[in-house]
Specification:
By secondary structure, this protein is α/β, with parallel strands linked by helices. Helix content is 21%, strand content 25%. It folds into 2 domains: 251 residues, 4-Layer Sandwich (Purple Acid Phosphatase, chain A, domain 2); 64 residues. A 6-stranded mixed β-sheet has the order 4-3-2-1-13-14, with no helix packed on it. Strands 5-6-7-10-12-11 form a 6-stranded mixed β-sheet. Strand 15, helix 5 and strand 16 form a beta-alpha-beta unit. It is elongated, with a radius of gyration of 22 Å.
């Protein structure tokens, strides 16, 4: 039996400015804490392999300090003899920032379509993968899988690691479902010789099936990155692989609750507005992400984000938005 830890979409560096212009609570630490918790779990539970399904970072241009904070904790995991497989995602523009850690004998990077064959605990496994396909996904996908180079004559388990949208995946509070299209991989496109597909990119954890029956597993992101994810439980998967079966267990991670409240349109004086916001905020967990949407434009002129942050708990992330449908400007948890 092979024990695997699978996670994805860590988006390290999100709301983690190196030289912040405003002194306020940041969410960046939440992502790093969950990232470290996952790595600690890999060691504590003695997994044989750890797979990251892409979007290690939240954008392609990353300050060196963030890169170091992301890569440095990997070394203790690798030194435990745990094989590590990383897929570059779309946020990295299909290429991870270079690091000496890539040369560690237990670190395996899908910087191009390729495969790694290992015997683990007496079981032969071929780990294949490729970076995120950014253009003509549906058309390019079969070519990328072929380029991975799975040995079709081998009886080894064949695992495909990637970072793409798959037909049938569901996202957001409105349960938007991806249908087959130019940027979506169809479920019938997965070859029948694959035993397991591990993919990042979709932020809600879920398990689909290829037309041939192979599990297509999304672990989701390790923290909520937008209000569209406010109802989603974040976490990672522990999988046990044998020649006969694949068993998975989803492990939840701590996530900050998200709440949105629209101000009453009839309240148009600052004192009453601030009092109402304070009263509502006291009903929320103190570590919430609290989004306040103005009911009318006048309220946006009266309220200042600095006043709100000083009035509400310091442990709370606060956002102030214009009325629905207005795009004059908006504040967000990562805008300053």
């Amino acid at each position: 039996m092979i024990k695997v830890l699978f996670f994805a979409d860590s988006h390290l560096g999100f709301d983690y400015p190196i030289r912040p212009r405003i002194n306020r609570r940041r969410r960046g630490w939440d992502f790093f804490k969950n990232y470290q918790l996952i790595l600690d779990t890999a060691i504590d539970e003695g997994v044989d392999a750890l797979v990251h399904g892409g979007d290690v970072f939240f954008r392609s241009k990353i300050p060196p300090q963030i890169i170091q904070k992301a890569y440095e904790p990997l070394l203790p995991v690798l030194e435990q003899g745990i094989h590590m497989f990383f897929v570059p995602g779309n946020h990295e523009r299909s290429r991870l920032p270079a690091s000496p850690i890539f040369h560690h004998h237990n670190f395996h990077l899908f910087d191009r379509p390729r495969s790694y064959a290992f015997e683990m605990n007496g079981l032969e496994v071929t780990w294949g993968g490729f970076p995120n396909i950014r253009i003509d996904v549906q058309k390019e996908f079969p070519h990328q899988v072929t380029q991975v180079g799975f040995d079709l004559e081998s009886e080894a388990l064949k695992v495909l690691c990637m970072h793409q949208s798959i037909e049938g995946a569901v996202v957001g509070a409105q349960n938007f479902t991806f249908h087959r299209g130019p940027d979506v991989v169809g479920r019938e496109q997965f070859p029948d010789y694959l035993d397991l597909v591990l993919s990042g990119h979709i932020h809600r954890q879920q398990i689909l099936r290829s037309k041939a029956g192979a599990p297509l597993i999304y672990p989701g992101s390790i923290e909520r990155t937008s209000f569209a994810e406010r109802l989603e439980t974040k976490g990672f998967f522990i999988l046990e692989l044998t020649m006969e079966d694949i068993i998975w267990d989803f492990r939840p991670l701590p996530s900050r609750p998200m709440h949105e409240w629209s101000l009453p349109t009839t309240v148009l004086d600052k004192r009453t507005l601030m009092s109402a916001i304070q009263d509502y905020g006291e009903m929320l967990p103190s570590h919430s992400i609290f989004r306040i949407r103005c009911g009318v434009e006048k309220q946006l002129e009266l309220l200042k984000i600095a006043d709100l942050r000083n009035t509400l708990p310091a442990s709370m992330n606060v956002e102030l938005l214009p009325p629905a449908g207005r795009t004059r400007f908006s504040w967000s948890a990562y805008s300053d």
